UniProtKB/TrEMBL annotation:
<dbReference type="InterPro" id="IPR016040">
    <property type="entry name" value="NAD(P)-bd_dom"/>
</dbReference>
<comment type="similarity">
    <text>Belongs to the NAD(P)-dependent epimerase/dehydratase family. GDP-mannose 4,6-dehydratase subfamily.</text>
</comment>
<dbReference type="InterPro" id="IPR006368">
    <property type="entry name" value="GDP_Man_deHydtase"/>
</dbReference>
<comment type="function">
    <text>Catalyzes the conversion of GDP-D-mannose to GDP-4-dehydro-6-deoxy-D-mannose.</text>
</comment>
<dbReference type="GO" id="GO:0042351">
    <property type="term" value="P:'de novo' GDP-L-fucose biosynthetic process"/>
</dbReference>
<dbReference type="GO" id="GO:0008446">
    <property type="term" value="F:GDP-mannose 4,6-dehydratase activity"/>
</dbReference>
<feature type="domain" description="NAD(P)-binding">
    <location>
        <begin position="5"/>
        <end position="344"/>
    </location>
</feature>
<keyword id="KW-0456">Lyase</keyword>
<keyword id="KW-0521">NADP</keyword>
<dbReference type="GO" id="GO:0070401">
    <property type="term" value="F:NADP+ binding"/>
</dbReference>
<protein>
    <recommendedName>
        <fullName>GDP-mannose 4,6-dehydratase</fullName>
        <ecNumber>4.2.1.47</ecNumber>
    </recommendedName>
</protein>
<dbReference type="Pfam" id="PF16363">
    <property type="entry name" value="GDP_Man_Dehyd"/>
</dbReference>
<dbReference type="InterPro" id="IPR036291">
    <property type="entry name" value="NAD(P)-bd_dom_sf"/>
</dbReference>
Length: 370
């Protein structure tokens, strides 16, 4: 039985990857951070009681900023494969917490690679590094491939640039089977609520149900190559199953603006919206609503640009070229953007329908101390 260790197992990708590896027969270990509230929502369905025998899913407390902790866990687990998904992954927040981001996202990767050297696991353990399309940053050329130069535009991307190169360096210097997956944006119903896609699908669902009035967004012109996290974790696994350790771009090859993502989300609930104005004066209004379940009047202002969500330096355009992954890994995404939006909207509408039932019955308490 192969043994995998996943950092960031409580995140979106960690949850999908753990599920995939368990289905493939792996013993899966994950590192979770201590928090004052439960933070294992996304993986609770995978939980196995540690008091039982022969369990294949185990969680360890840890943090990428703590080398001794990482060394101890790796020594205990003796993993065949490490997937380093743990990171402070929010680009905008990285401008507020640049030093912490560098520590977790950059030096955290170094700590894992060094642990393999210290424990003499350089020949046994393969390692996947969660690299990102944010490395491309300021557009040099499109579509972006494994050969496109990097130009990071945030403390997050700069930290990930260090992680990318230290992964390459340890591969070349010590022969570690260490690979970068340069993944473009990938989303799902498990996506963190403050990333733009999930922020949109949640808000649109709430607006359709009369639980929210307006959605405040930043740059509507940004273009992203959005795929589904389920497809992308499959690629992570494939990358570590090859004969040679290499780096791969994982993307759909299609790019869409934030504005169009908003329109597509509203369309899922039968609502058409139009945008008027430009720049910070741009607003989105309801044009029509064909779904009788939702009483939304035409002309209502539903999207407003708020400069608080602008980044000091923005990444305007991402569109990936996944040719290498398709040819060498045989990777093929099953989802396109419309099917992704459909799944995210369906999940959020269902969630907020339940919340509305509670609220209508007087049970919905926003803050227990209010
Ligand atoms: P999430 O933000 O959903 O998950 C991040 C995970 O990292 C969480 O489990 C989080 O724990 C954990 N984490 C944060 N800080 C630390 C730390 N100091 N030590 C240990 N664990 C930590 O990210 P995604 O699942 O979306 O992304 C997975 C990885 O892939 C990240 O590295 C991200 O940067 C990268 N990536 C993501 C892309 C995407 O579009 N989703 C695209 C390209 C790269 P907690 O739950 O406690 O917060
Ligand atoms: P990104 O994702 O920065 O690409 O990083 P995010 O969804 O945060 O932003 C995408 C684009 O949307 C614009 N935007 C907004 N973004 C947020 N979060 N909130 C808003 O209100 C808003 N309005 C407009 C942003 O300016 C940006 O251009 C994600 C993360 O998962 C990273 O960890 C990962 O490495 C990259 O994707 C690939």
């Amino acid at each position: 039985m192969k043994i995998a260790l996943i950092t960031g197992i409580t995140g979106q990708d960690g949850a999908y990857l753990a599920d995939l590896l368990l289905k493939k027969g792996y013993e899966v270990h994950g590192i979770k951070r201590r928090s004052s509230l439960f933070n294992t929502d996304r993986i609770d369905h995978l939980y196995q009681d540690p008091h039982e025998k022969n369990i294949r899913f185990k969680l360890h407390y840890g943090d990428l900023s703590d080398s001794t902790n990482l060394i101890r866990i790796i020594q205990e687990v003796q993993p065949d494969e490490i997937y380093n998904l743990g990171a402070m992954s929010h680009v905008k927040v990285s401008f507020d917490t640049p030093e912490y981001t560098a520590n977790a996202d950059g030096i955290g990767t170094l700590r894992l690679l060094e642990a393999l050297r210290i424990l003499n696991l350089t020949k046994k353990t393969k390692i996947y590094q969660a690299s990102t399309s944010e490395l491309y940053g300021l557009v040099q050329a499109v579509p972006q491939s494994e050969n496109t130069p990097f130009y990071p535009r945030s403390p997050y991307a700069v930290a990930k640039l260090y992680a990318y190169w230290i992964t390459v360096n340890y591969r070349e210097a010590y022969g570690i089977f260490a690979c970068n997956g340069i993944l473009f944006n990938h989303e799902s119903p498990l996506r963190g609520e403050t990333f733009v896609t999930r922020k949109i699908t949640r808000a649109v669902s709430k607006m359709a149900l009369g639980l929210q009035d307006c959605l405040y967004l930043g740059n509507l012109d940004a273009r992203r190559d959005w795929g589904h996290a389920k497809d992308y974790v499959e690629a992570m696994w494939l990358i570590l199953q090859q004969d040679q350790p290499e780096d791969y771009v994982i993307a759909t090859g299609v790019t869409t603006t934030v504005r169009d993502f908003v329109k597509m989300s509203f369309n899922e609930v039968g609502i058409e919206i139009e945008f008027k104005g430009e720049g910070i004066d741009e607003k989105g209004y309801i044009r029509s609503c064909s779904n009788p379940a939702y009483q939304i009047e035409a002309g209502k202002e539903v999207v407003v640009v708020d400069t608080a969500y602008f980044r000091p330096t923005e990444v305007d355009l991402l569109i990936g070229d996944p040719t290498k992954a398709k040819t060498k890994l045989g990777w093929e995404p099953k989802y396109d953007l419309p099917s992704l939006v459909k799944e995210m909207m369906a999940a959020d509408v269902e969630h907020f329908q339940k919340e509305k039932v509670l609220k209508d019955a007087g049970y919905f308490i926003k803050n227990q101390f209010e």
